[in-house]
Amino acid sequence: MTTFDTYRAAPATNFFSTVLGQLISWNDRRVTKKMLSNLTDRELNDIGLERADIATWSRGR
């Protein structure tokens, strides 16, 4: 399974940086949810997750 480096430096505190940060965070959650949804139940079990965990996690835990 491929891993992705999701490190991002903290942006300056202004409106556009905040919006950009939220957009990046949303996209990271979206991509992760899509990747986890493509796994089989067996693969999810191997990493300690269930299908219901994906939905719970995507709503912000």
UniProtKB/TrEMBL annotation:
Source taxon at top rank: Bacteria
Any Pfam family: YjiS-like
Name this polypeptide is given: Uncharacterized conserved protein YjiS, DUF1127 family
Residue intervals of the YjiS-like domain: 23-54
Organism: Jannaschia pohangensis
